[in-house]
Amino acid sequence: MAGHSHAANVKHKKAANDKKRGKIFSKLIKAISIAARDEANPQFNPRLRTAIDTAVENQVPKENIERAIKKAAEPGEELEELTMEAYGPEGSALIITAITDNRNRTVSEVKLILKKQDAKWADPGSVLWAFDHDNEGGWQAKFPQAITEDGKQKLEALIEALDDQDDVDDIYVNIDLSVNELTS
Fold it and tell me: What pTM does this model have?
């Protein structure tokens, strides 16, 4: 049977895994670059130390981590950290953080994803009130809300679509389930 060789199947699976791994590496390297802008020494920068630890856990090569730290110290391409707000299914609140080199492109791509998933863009500050900063620099819901199973499925699809966007770093929601439980 033509086209059904074991080698071809392995090649396709490896390509898919490499693509996922590359996307994760890219996000982690951007997080390291943003954290290293203020202080390049991880002993004095807990945010950088956490980003490096996460990268090491995900098997990012040490050379890539060092290159990202050096690149952050050099003038040139500036990465910017964005915090965007949105409302998802059944009024669930979302905070979307992104690291980008082009604010306008990233915002328009996120708005398009939200529109396709029947979610709504929110004005700055209209969602942040429902969250507090947590110890790791992320966001924790003050008032977790319950949504239906259908709403959870829609929210899961929205989070997956947002996570597929290269610049999106983290997504926080104010429902009973954590994002990790939804996307795993």
Answer: 0.67
